[in-house]
Structures are given as structure tokens and as C-alpha cells.
Design a protein that fits this description.
277 residues, 36% helix, seven-stranded mixed sheet, 7 strands
Length: 277
């Protein structure tokens, strides 16, 4: 009599793609707070994207668009394009792309079957000092934890393909983010109900063209908060399922700091004022 097969069923594997917008910088020379000055953002955000088409197809299409830019004599003389080509190959990067180059990718992205969630963290100096101990990596890990905490319940193997970002994407920082996410999800659901297995796959946009999608979607949202500009967000809104204004404590009651793309979209009113201290 044969024994029943007790080999556990392997967990399904899913891929998500994560990139950041803005920076974690708070200080200039002499440890002076320089939020909002030239080249320093007022917010730091992270985007996570789920694709509803085979990844190999989307990757191939984006690679073809990149080659199209490299071969277009109207675009391949733009300094930002030349610089990336000289360093190994062109890839889309929203904050550094010219308007002409952005248009190429924006038209593609509008019709792409994908879904994003974005966490925006206002850069509040007092919070940075007291909550994150004045450390960029702790700030980064905290924001990332909020991005992934709601993805830990289902029994599956999640590969988080995340854009490389200096010391912030070292294993220690990513492990800290996952631990924070697990702790927060465990308090709400119970630790025994967290069935997902999570691994990080640190990538560069040159090696993984799919990272251009969370980059562009996050950038469109950042423009609303930094400049009150909704043009790009409105154009891509159907792709952005949820935006969380993480540290807007005034709107915590009733989860008013959660912005759904249908019922409660971002508007020019989401532009933040002078940097908080």
C-alpha cells in the first residue's frame, strides 16, 4: 500500500516592481535643513507595480521603445539621452527625461495593463529626527514597509524587484523594512495569518526596463505634491489604484489621507506648503 504524497504544493511566484521618487536628503552644508531648495525634494515616495500581462512581453516592448529613442535623430542628440547611451545604454527615467522623450513613454504607459500603489512621505524634519533618528536608511525602510505590509497575507512567493539606491537597498535595510512590514501586518491580522514568503531582487533600470513603470507613475504623483501639477497624474490616473499620503496626520481620521483613483483622486489641493519643521 503506497503512502499518500505529502510533498507540499509549491507557492505560486509573483513579481512586483518598486522604484522611488524624490530623495531622502534633509541637510545641506553645516547640517542646515535645506528642504525645498534646488535639487532637494519636499517628499520621498515609493511605487509598487503589478503587471497584468506577461512580463517578458512588456519587457520586450519597453526595450524596443528604448532602442527607438536611441535610433531617433530627433531624440538621440538630447544630452540626457547621450549621457545614458555613453554609459551603457538608454533607459527611461522620468525626472531626467526631456519632454519629447517622456511623451514616448507616457503614450505607451497609458495603454499598458498594470496597477500601481504609491506611498508618499512628506519630509518633516522633526519626524525624521524623532522617528528615524536622523538616518536616511531608517526613513527609507519605514516608507518601504508601508508599501509592502498589505501584501503578506496570501500564501505566495513574492519577488520584489526593487531599484538599486545606494546604501538604502543593502540587505540590512531591506530586511529591516520587511521586519517592520511583518510587525505591522501581524498586529492587524495576527502573525499566524501571514503566509507570504518575500525576497528582494535589487536591480538597476538598465538591467530591468520594467522599473521605468513605477518610476514614471511615482513621478506623476510627486508632481502633484511638489508643484500642484496634475497633468501627468490625470493622464495616468487609471493606472494608479491608490496613493497614501503617509504622514498627513491631519487627515488620518476616516483614512482621508488615502486617495483612490476613482472616488477620491488627487487634485491641485494636494500640493504641500512650506517644509514642516
Amino acid at each position: 500500500m503506497s503512502l499518500p504524497d505529502e510533498t507540499p504544493t509549491p507557492l505560486p511566484i509573483v513579481h512586483r516592481f518598486i522604484d522611488e521618487v524624490g530623495d531622502t536628503t534633509f541637510y545641506g552644508k553645516g547640517k542646515e535643513v535645506n528642504l525645498g531648495q534646488e535639487g532637494v525634494s519636499l517628499v520621498f515616495g515609493m511605487s509598487i507595480v503589478k503587471f497584468d500581462r506577461p512580463l517578458v512581453e512588456v519587457r520586450s516592448e519597453i526595450l524596443a521603445l528604448q532602442k527607438q529613442v536611441e535610433g531617433d535623430p530627433l531624440l538621440n542628440t538630447i544630452p540626457s539621452v547621450v549621457k545614458r547611451v555613453d554609459k551603457g545604454g538608454f533607459f527611461f527615467h522620468a525626472c531626467k527625461d526631456s519632454d519629447d522623450v517622456r511623451t514616448v513613454f507616457l503614450h505607451y504607459l497609458r495603454d499598458l495593463k498594470c496597477e500601481a500603489e504609491i506611498v508618499i512621505a512628506r519630509k518633516i524634519h522633526s519626524l525624521f529626527v524623532n522617528k528615524h533618528h536622523g538616518k536616511d536608511d531608517e526613513f527609507y525602510a519605514d516608507v518601504l514597509s508601508h508599501l509592502i505590509k498589505n501584501r503578506l497575507k496570501q500564501p505566495r512567493h513574492i519577488v520584489l524587484n526593487i531599484a538599486q539606491r545606494g546604501s538604502s537597498t543593502r540587505a540590512r535595510v531591506l530586511d529591516e523594512a520587511l521586519a517592520k512590514a511583518t510587525g505591522r501586518a501581524g498586529k492587524r491580522l495576527g502573525s499566524d495569518d501571514l503566509k507570504a514568503e518575500v525576497v528582494f531582487n535589487v536591480q538597476t533600470p538598465l538591467r530591468e526596463p520594467l522599473l521605468a513603470v513605477p518610476d514614471y507613475l511615482g513621478w506623476a504623483v510627486q508632481r502633484v505634491f511638489e508643484k500642484g501639477q496634475t497633468r501627468y497624474y490625470d493622464y495616468l490616473r487609471e493606472k494608479i489604484r491608490l496613493v497614501v499620503d503617509l504622514y498627513d496626520s491631519e487627515k488620518y481620521p476616516g483614512n482621508q489621507n488615502y486617495y483612490d483613483h476613482h472616488c477620491n483622486p488627487l487634485t491641485t489641493q494636494n500640493k504641500i506648503g512650506p517644509p514642516s519643521t
